[in-house]
Amino acid sequence: MDTVIGRTGFHAQHTKNVGERGAIVHEMMRELDEDSIAYWATRNPNIVIADEVLNEAMVNDGAGGFRACADRQEVLDYGADRVRRVKRKFRDDKLDPKTGKMKGGTVTTSLLVSHLPKSMCIEIPGYYPVLDKKTGEPVVDADGDPMMRSRWVARDRDDARHYFQEVVQYLTDEAIPGGTEAVLGYDIQHSESTPHVQILADTFAEDPKDEDALRVESSRAWFSHRDVKDDKGKQKSGPTKLREYHAGLKQHLLDLGYDISADFDEARHLVGMGKDEYGQTMDAKRHVDTLKDRAVEDHEKLNEWDTSLLDLRDQLADRAEHLDERQRNLEARESELPTLRRHVEEMGREDGVKAAAAANDKIVKQRIAATLAPAWSAVDRQRKELEGLLAQAAQDRENYLIAATQLEQYNRTLQPLVEKWERANPHTERGAKAQRSATLIRQIEQRAAELRENTPTDDVEFGD
Fold it and tell me: What Gene3D superfamilies does the annotation carry (predicted)?
């Protein structure tokens, strides 16, 4: 079994419309009423309704901490009070004539999502069917069997709660511009494919010019801002800040002794990939892994067929050598016939009797027939046996070529992924694993080519 690697990180999404908070909280804290659970369960196949009772909704208590939330409106009311303290009016989106997109509006709200590391989970294999993104129907593998994926549940829910509280604390201290006061609420969820926490925060911080007011600090925290620069005096970009937040969160949790990898998944957390997109990516990866496993199985079958064909070829060679020996014996006996005829003629001349010569000729023919008949019968029998073996070899060769063609098709399907694996950084654990997979596929391709070159031909012919 492969060692489970624990990874930490978070995904950030931002919105400009304060009105979208209602929909966010409705999904985030759906466990607060049965209607919401039913509504979202029909839209998210990962939701396990029976486990909704395990989720924990928390709202800002306004005193520097959080308390259990009984009504989603508490979260929205707390956020509305902070909106009223923002003195400067929010900017509206404007159409960019160059790109044709709306831009320039004020970002007011952030949703941060962080999953529990796999090292703190227990895997339940084959829990969910893999569903087609477009049709919603189960996806099947090359054998027609439904593809399944695992569910991960917290090994210890108390430990999971403490972990998520540390994540919330770090993000409020280092990433969210208004600190704890800017976090409207958060929800720890155990009812989906992986335990995770969703944090709803605004982008407002205290206005240094007015202690009773707030100002928007989204650019300072998440995007480029003229006052936020690196050690060289260069203005930091949004991706640079994200990398720093991720690195800081990782180090914070490592210092606390959590069993997590020293790396974080940049491919997931820094390119805007949310939990839905990540799930779809993992489904696609599982499909590719299935194809790779099938290719390995076919490779093993080809090796078995290759061995069988080589054995059959050796048997044919032995039979051919045996027939050659029989042929040489017949030719040797035929070479004795002139000597036998001369001997008969000499006997006829010595006796001077034509009848005797005719009788002797008949005797010669009888002796020839008696000598050659068993040999020719044996040759004919051996020829029929060999023709049967050749027919079987031709059928095996056809099966072999069909399998080789299927293997080549699998290899072409895997080609883009193999090329990506070959470009992976071999100095990382993920990159090394990717390159080992690529090497395996290349070995399979080479072996398939060698087997095709060594395929026995069906051009064996026999004379009369």
Answer: 3.30.930.30
60 close to 180: Cβ distance less than 8 angstroms = yes
* Domain range for 98: 11-271
Question: Quick one: tokens of 80?
Answer: 């509305």
Question: For residues 51 and 349, what is the distance between their CA atoms, to the nearest angstrom?
Answer: 116
Residue 277 forms part of a structural domain: no
49 and 154 housed in the same domain: yes
Check if the beta carbon of residue 148 is closer than 8 Å to that of residue 52: no
Concatenating the DSSP letter of every residue in 325-353 gives HHHHHHHHHHHTHHHHHHHHHHHHHHHT-
Q: Identify the DSSP state of 131.
A: B
Mean pLDDT computed over every residue of the chain: 82
Q: What is the largest CA-CA distance in the chain?
A: 151
For the entire predicted model, the pTM comes to: 0.60
CA–CA distance, 130 with 407 (Å, rounded to integer) = 24
User: Quick one: DSSP state of residue 121?
Assistant: E
**In this structure, what are the phi and psi dihedrals at residue 234, rounded to the nearest 5 degrees?**
-90, 140
Residues 150 and 240 in one domain: yes
Coil/strand/helix, residue 229: strand
- pLDDT tens string 249-268: 999 999 999 999 886 554 44
Q: What confidence tens digit (pLDDT) does each residue in 291-305 have?
A: 555 555 665 666 666
Pairing state between β 121-129 and 148-154: antiparallel
